Amino acid sequence: MDSTFPTRAIILNRHDWREADRLVSVYTPAYGRLTLLARGARKSASKLAAHLEPISLSRLLVVKGKGFDYVGSALMDEAFLNIKQDFNKLYFAGQALQQFSALVHEGEADPALFEWLEKWLLNLDSVGENNLSKEDGRFRLALFSWRLFALLGYKPELQKCVACAGTLAPGKNTFDFARGGLICSLCAEQSVEAAAKGFLLPLSDNCIKLLRLMDGEITKNIKFSPRLLHEWEHLNIRLYSWFQS
Which of 9, 12, 227, 240 is exposed most, by the fewest CB atoms within 10 A? Predict the structure, then answer.
């Protein structure tokens, strides 16, 4: 890595550091997640602070330092103002970035991951003012989590039983967190130890169909029931906890 380099960066979060500085967590396409020192960013006259707001896309000049690398200059390209001015959008964007920060480690560069995060934020920002319903926000967050898992290498197997490699027939199929995918009803009955440890989660046929659809190109006007969305959210929460353990 050069001693000084320019990069696009999505600002994930920040916190105060010492008397007048801030530490800023960003994600970049070529260098992955970085923690950068923004010198003097807490001062009222700082020229950096406005360009390093969380949920923003900026162009940075990063300079190598002895302790932390630091921000030499910053220019905001996209403020995502529609997100920041809408409580519902801000909530779901905050939840997404929190998951991202928890699962994406420093230095793991992935242009596809950067592209997905940017695309998701832009799509959320483009929703008309006050037009984001709670259900739509929940769906967008569930989709964000599902694609994030896949991009990080945690894509679950949904097409065949991960225990016996057999065909999954409609009916009592179960998600096995330890094996990373669906198991058939027969294998689920035989997985007594996994069930006792809480590694298994039964999924409805409709939920499995929805998850398979989410692995492809997303079409508009997808219809789903509140119960189905809740089932998907519950699976994502369990997966999120599993990957953190």
Answer: 227
Rounded to an integer, what distance in angstroms lies between the CA atom of residue 149 and that of residue 143? 10
pLDDT tens column, 20-65: 999 999 999 999 999 999 999 999 888 899 999 999 999 999 999 8
Chain-centroid distance, C-alpha 171: 31
Which of 3.30.420.270, 2.40.128.270, 3.40.190.290, 2.40.50.140 is the CATH number of 4-78? 2.40.50.140
3 state DSSP class of 218: coil
Q: Which residues contact 155 (CB under 8 A, 6 or more apart)?
A: 149, 215
Domain ranges for the chain: 4-78, 82-145, 173-244
d(CA 92, CA 132): 10
Question: Residue 95: enclosing H or E segment and its boundaries?
Answer: helix 87-103
Cα 117 from Cα 218, distance rounded (Å):
16
- For residue 112, the one-letter residue type is A
Mean pLDDT estimate for the chain: 92
The percent of the chain in helix, strand and coil, each rounded to the nearest 5, is 40, 25, 35
Q: Are strands 32-38 and 69-78 parallel, antiparallel or unpaired?
A: parallel
76 versus 129: which is more confidently predicted? 76
